Amino acid sequence: MPWLRTKAILTAAGAVAVVAVGLLTLKMSAGCAGEEGAPACTRVLFIGNSYTTVNDLPGVFASLARSGGHRVETKSAAVNGWTLANHADSPATATALTAGSWDIVVLQEQSQIPAIEEFRQTQMYPAARRLISSIRNRAARPLFYLTWGRRDGWPETGMPTYASMQSAIDDGYLAIAADQQVAIAPVGDAWATMVAGTPRMELWQEDGSHPSEAGTYLAACVFYATIFRESPKGLGYHGNLSAQVAARIQYVAAETVLADPAKWPAPSE
């Protein structure tokens, strides 16, 4: 049965990820070296997998933030394919969490798990609660990274389109965020707006899963608006994107997060 094959694949992937504990990527951006009279530094730890590391989302966010006049330090604790359950059980992730005075800790689940109720209840939610408790014990603010659906959906599980998978992922994150009173960076919602726009921008790589440079830039703009409560419109950092493409992404990110601040509040303890 397709469903059983899907479950077996995810179970096997989780087992491989546990074996890969020694491969956890710890990458830090340029830090906040002391400058007298400089603005306060915002320190952000990203816990996740390849949706975080591909195109170096923490680094893109840091460059974007600096172009907006913010001093930031970012670090990623990530292994390709890892789940929040892998991170909750990982001594390396625990070390990353305790090794810095983080203001915000981002939590990104494996890309498919939030779309399935069984996986949410047995894997995502218990792990998220453990990690959130650890984050708050460090006086940091947790923040969920609401990701995007696959370009072609997940037909084996009754989600034949991107839109149907995105809706299920949204449901998965919104429920645990409400339960734990944790803010969300709504990257998936901004992604859906971009996908529906004209002309359509290619946010996925050829695999239909991982982000293109434009997709990562969109995520960084959403994090900028969510964390700083400021619009990324007009920021000078564009990465390798044209000014026109970057401006369109900045606009969508700002409208997604800041047009309804009650829906997407700032991270809090």
Highlighted features:
single chain; 269 residues; alpha/beta; 6-stranded mixed β-sheet; 10 helices; 6 strands; 12% strand; globular
In short:
This protein is of the alpha/beta class.
Structure overview:
- By secondary structure, the protein is α/β, with parallel strands linked by helices.
- The chain contains 10 helices and 6 strands; from the N terminus they run αββααβααβαβαβααα.
- The protein has helices at residues 2-19, 50-53, 57-67, 84-88, 91-98, 117-137, 162-180, 187-196, 213-228, 243-258; strands spanning 25-28, 41-48, 71-78, 104-107, 141-145, 183-185.
- The protein has a 6-stranded mixed beta sheet, sandwiched between helices.
- α3 packs across α9 (213-228).
- The radius of gyration is 17 Å and the shape is globular.
- The model is unreliable at 1-5 and 11-22 (pLDDT under 50).
Rounded to the nearest angstrom, the distance between the terminal CA atoms is: 44 Å
| Average of pLDDT | 90
The helix tally amounts to 10
Major β-sheet annotation: 6 strands, mixed
Give the amount of beta strand, in percent. Answer: 5-15%
Q: Choose one word for the global shape.
A: globular
Order of helices and strands: HEEHHEHHEHEHEHHH
Computed structural class: alpha/beta
Biggest sheet strand line-up:
1-3-2-4-5-6
Total E-strand runs? 6
Low-confidence stretches: 1-5, 11-22
Helix content: 40-55%
Summarize the topology.
Elements: H1 2-19, E1 25-28, E2 41-48, H2 50-53, H3 57-67, E3 71-78, H4 84-88, H5 91-98, E4 104-107, H6 117-137, E5 141-145, H7 162-180, E6 183-185, H8 187-196, H9 213-228, H10 243-258
Parallel strand pairs: 2-3, 2-4, 4-5, 5-6
Antiparallel strand pairs: 1-3
Helix pairs in contact: 3-9, 8-10, 9-10
